[in-house]
């Protein structure tokens, strides 16, 4: 996981992304976080590569997913987006609208790819904290592919484990 907290500056002339959290982490977690991630989303586990390293086998993610992830890391540095880790003490629902550049891939592949990207960007502590994808949709927007998402804590009924 990357730690972008060391890149924080107090320069008021730098542009601030609209997704930057200005509230306390606990308050942000209660209300949820809304993000718009630019670029065409990609699935992680299509066309992965298998490498042999001695007796070990390493499975690398698909190159298009790694390119998307790298572009989002650059976007994070350029916009100085410094998220709060979510998912320490509660499960999360991710309502994501995937605006793809073409009708390809399946929903589960996109869910897994997005969850891993959110962990890489330090938005969630662990992608296993995302236990629900309620409200997520697969859409097409060739002119402006992106992912719009809202992360909110899952509320459980009283007495639920």
Approximately what portion of the residues adopt beta-strand conformation?
A: 15-25%
CA-based gyration radius = 17 Å
Give the low-pLDDT segments: 1-23
Order of helices and strands: HEEEHEHEEE
CATH third-tier fold name: 60s Ribosomal Protein L30, Chain: A
The CATH superfamily is identified as Holliday junction resolvase RusA
At a glance:
With 161 residues, this protein is of the alpha/beta class. The protein contains three helices and seven strands, in the order αβββαβαβββ. The chain has helices at 25-31, 63-79, 107-120, and strands spanning 33-38, 49-53, 56-60, 92-100, 130-132, 137-140, 146-153.
Describe this protein's structure.
This protein is of the alpha/beta class and 161 residues long. It has a single domain (25-153), classed as 60s Ribosomal Protein L30, Chain: A (2-Layer Sandwich). Helices cover 24% and strands 25% of the residues. It has 3 helices and 7 strands, in the order αβββαβαβββ. Strands 1, 4, 5, 6 and 7 form a 5-stranded mixed beta sheet that branches. It is globular.
